[in-house]
Design goal:
Number of domains: 2
Strand content: 5-15%
Strand order of the largest sheet: 6-5-4-1-3-2-7
Radius of gyration: 18 Å
Structural class: alpha+beta
Number of strands: 7
Shape: globular
Order of helices and strands: HEHEEHHEEEHHHHEHH
C-alpha cells in the first residue's frame, strides 16, 4: 500500500444508520461479519459504528465496502439503511432499501458535488422525506458551495435527517477516523456490541424474531425470508466477482450463507 493509500485509509470512517430499534438491528448485524458498537440514534433509528474493514488495509475503498454492507442489511430486514462514509479524498452516502439498487451521492474533499442530480430526489422519496422542504435542502447539497467541504456536506445531510428523527449520539462526528469513532462509541451509555458472525440470536433478542429463520418463527415466513436472502446473495456475489469488489462479494456470500443456514435450520425444526 502506497503512502497516499495509507493516509486515505487511516482517515477513513463510516456510520451505518438503520431505521429500526437496536434490538432489530442486532438481529441482522452479524450478516456483516464484523462486530460493531450499536447505539440508539433517535426515536426510531439506530447507528452501527464500523471500527474495522477492508479499507483499513487498503484492500477496498470505504465507499464500496459500506455500500455493500448497507445492501446486505437492507435485504435481510424490512427497513432502510443509510451508509455515511468518508476518507481523505471524498465523502458520501449510500441508501439501501429492500431489493432495490442502492442510491448514493459523493462529494470531493473540498465539497464539490460529484453525484447525479436525481439521486437526492430518489433518496428523499425512499426515506419518505418532505417532497418540498426536505428536497429543497437536499438539492442545495448538490450545488457548488465554496464554503462547504465534504465534512460540512455530510453534516448538512444529517441536519435534513433530523426532521426524519435521526439524532446521532454525542461524539459520533462525521469526518472522524474509524478508530476515533469506535473509541467514542464504546464510551457512550447504552452501547452494545453486535454478535459475532454466525451467531444465532435467541427469540427474546429482537422484535424481528418471528421473522428470522434461525429462531423458529412462523414456518412459511421464515422460509420465505431465508430464500430471499439466498436469492439476493447470489447476484450480489456474481456482481462483486465481476467487479472484483471484495465488499460486494463478501456481502453476497454472507447473504447466501445465512439464507442457506435459515433454510436448513427451518427444515430441521419442522414437525
Amino acid at each position: 500500500m502506497s503512502t497516499e493509500e495509507s493516509a486515505s485509509a487511516s482517515a477513513a470512517g463510516a456510520l451505518l444508520l438503520c431505521r429500526a430499534e437496536p434490538d432489530s438491528v442486532a438481529a441482522v448485524a452479524p450478516l456483516l461479519g464484523e462486530r460493531m458498537p450499536l447505539l440508539r440514534a433517535g426515536e426510531t433509528w439506530s447507528v452501527l459504528v464500523p471500527e474495522r474493514g477492508p479499507w483499513r488495509r487498503g484492500d477496498e475503498p470505504v465507499e464500496r465496502v459500506l455500500t455493500g454492507w448497507a445492501a446486505a442489511l437492507a435485504v435481510g430486514a424490512p427497513w432502510p439503511v443509510l451508509a455515511l462514509w468518508w476518507d481523505a479524498d471524498r465523502a458520501g452516502c449510500a441508501l439501501a432499501s429492500g431489493f432495490r439498487r442502492p442510491v448514493g451521492y459523493v462529494w470531493l474533499a473540498d465539497g464539490t458535488p460529484a453525484g447525479e442530480d436525481e439521486a437526492m430526489r430518489t433518496f428523499a422519496d425512499r426515506l419518505g422525506l418532505d417532497p418540498v422542504l426536505d428536497v429543497q435542502s437536499l438539492d442545495r447539497l448538490a450545488r457548488p458551495d465554496p464554503e462547504a467541504d465534504a465534512r460540512t456536506r455530510v453534516r448538512g445531510l444529517l441536519a435534513v435527517l433530523t426532521r426524519a428523527g435521526v439524532a446521532l449520539p454525542a461524539g459520533l462526528d462525521p469526518g472522524e477516523p474509524a478508530d476515533r469513532l469506535g473509541a467514542a462509541a464504546r464510551g457512550l451509555p447504552g452501547v452494545r456490541r453486535t454478535g459475532a458472525p454466525g451467531r444465532r440470536p435467541t427469540a427474546g433478542e429482537s422484535r424481528l424474531a418471528p421473522w428470522m429463520p434461525w429462531v423458529g418463527g412462523p414456518g412459511a415466513r421464515a422460509l420465505a425470508l431465508a430464500l430471499a436472502q439466498m436469492a439476493a446473495g447470489l447476484p450480489l456475489t456474481a456482481w462483486g466477482l465481476r467487479r472484483r469488489s471484495g465488499g460486494w462479494t463478501t456481502a453476497g456470500v454472507l447473504l447466501v450463507a445465512h439464507g442457506a443456514l435459515g433454510v436448513a435450520y427451518g427444515l430441521t425444526r419442522r414437525p
